[in-house]
Design brief:
Elements (H helix, E strand, L loop, with lengths): L4 E5 L5 E5 L5 E2 L2 H5 L27 E6 L5 E6 L3 E6 L10 E4 L18
Antiparallel strand pairs: 1-2, 2-3, 4-5, 5-6, 6-7
Length: 118
């Protein structure tokens, strides 16, 4: 799909997709599925349903970032974990690979330098 779009996560934990710069919301699921995203930092959507642990509260997963190649996604959560998953992660309750970080809450891990560093 050749549109400039942005996806946002609302405070009500809803995913919205909007045309840029008009701001018009796109609600057609078939149209949204055709969008090729340049980057991905959303914790919501069918593409990332597997990043949510079983019995997780909506606020437990704080952030996500997909590698530049679009093959993996990293998340940060309220438990001090950085988790790495395949992307897209469409199967529920995938365990992922994880490392424990000395932090109560991780808010924005992201890939740097051609996805070689986190």
């Amino acid at each position: 799909l050749f549109l400039s779009c942005i996806q946002v996560s609302t405070g009500a934990y809803k995913r919205q997709v909007h045309e840029v710069p008009l701001g018009k919301q796109i609600t057609d699921t078939a149209m949204i599925e055709k969008i090729t995203w340049a980057t991905w930092t959303s914790i919501l959507g069918d593409e990332v349903i597997g990043i949510w642990p079983r019995n997780a509260d909506k606020a437990d997963v704080n952030c996500a970032c997909v590698t530049h190649a679009g093959l993996n996604i990293v998340t940060g959560d309220d438990f001090g974990l950085v988790k790495l998953f395949d992307f897209p992660c469409t199967e529920k309750f995938v365990s992922g690979d994880f490392i424990l970080i000395q932090s109560k809450q991780l808010t924005f891990p992201m890939f740097r330098f051609l996805s070689m560093w986190l």
